[in-house]
Amino acid sequence: MDYCPYYPPIMLRKTFDKDHSPSPSASDITLCRVFNFEVVHLVDKNNESPNLADSNILIPWPWGSLSKPNHGGYTLCHALGWDDKTYKEVQEGLHGVCKSYLDISMTFPKQTSDMVSKFLQVAWEQFPILNKYIDLWPASDFAMMYLKNKVGSDRAKTKVGMDK
After folding, report:
1. CA pair distance 28, 162, nearest whole angstrom
2. How far from 133 is each of 44, 50, 52, 87, 102, CA to CA, in Å?
3. Is 59 helix (H, G, I), strand (E, B) or coil?
4. Cβ within 8 Å of residue 109, ≥6 positions away
């Protein structure tokens, strides 16, 4: 039998005219504005960091996806910078608020807006530390992770129960 090499599709070459190129030209990329950064000065004239608790500056959402630090995201623990005791107290407290005001059989994005509003209102009242953050984003992130893990573990338990 004669040897016949196989070339996977990735090895096939296709050329495009400049008018039909699948990607923008280098000049198009360099001419467009990719980032829109807002300058925030975190150092005052005396080279001292300002006390954010005393100012009206709200802390914005971190850049990237929640719990994906290896892919440009962030972990909640590092983004908040709280001590372990505060982090654990708020986390456990918000888990309780989730159980009381959200449907724990659904992930956070599937919750109704009324349920999310009530959850955020209670979180705002019970944990004043969250008032320093735009849109109470730590509360939303804690709830998102809790519900994602809860739904996933319940699904896994159901699957194990069906396998028996």
Report:
1. 55
2. 21, 16, 11, 15, 21
3. strand
4. 144
| Strand, helix or coil for residue 108 | helix
Give residue-wise pLDDT tens across range 42-84. 444 454 544 545 556 888 888 887 877 777 788 888 889 899 9
Q: Six-digit token pair at 77?
A: 């623990």
- Please, are residues 114 and 106 in contact by the beta-carbon 8 Å criterion? no
The answer to whether 16 and 22 are in contact (CB under 8 A) is yes
**pLDDT per residue as tens digits for the range 82-140:** 999 999 999 999 999 999 999 999 999 999 999 999 999 999 999 999 999 988 899 99
- φ, ψ (nearest 5 deg) of residue 47: 60, 35
Do 76 and 138 touch, CB atoms closer than 8 A?
yes
Backbone CA torsion sign across 117, 123, 128, 133: negative
Q: What is the pTM of this model?
A: 0.62
